[in-house]
Write a structure and sequence with these properties.
The chain has 89 residues and is α+β, with helices and mostly antiparallel strands. Helix content is 60%, strand content 17%. The protein is built from 4 helices and 3 strands. A 3-stranded mixed β-sheet has the order 1-2-3. 2% of the residues are buried. The mean pLDDT is 89.
């Protein structure tokens, strides 16, 4: 079953349409202007990759003798300095 929606409805309901499994026909004034085909990736694999990356980051911080709080504080300091420089340009 192919769902047909107008451009405005599609824009407003995009978050819901992304989770569907069937293609969406997008229309403007009753004429087809495009097709949206949701792509579902393997979320378990994505989550596993993020978990692995977090483990590696924690191992690196431990190896360098840096706490997570110290890394966050340094990041915030650098972000504020960059923001200040940008405003002064």
């Amino acid at each position: 079953m192919n769902t047909m929606v107008g451009v405005r409805e599609f824009r407003q309901g995009l978050a819901d349409y992304i989770d569907q499994t069937e293609p969406i026909t997008v229309t403007r004034h009753g004429r087809t202007v495009g097709l949206f085909i949701p792509v579902h990736q393997d979320r378990k694999a994505e989550i596993a990759a993020y978990v692995q990356a977090a483990k590696k980051a924690n191992e690196l911080l431990t190896h360098m003798g840096i706490t997570e709080d110290a890394a966050v504080a340094e990041f915030e300091s650098l972000r504020k300095a960059a923001s200040t420089r940008q405003r002064n340009l």
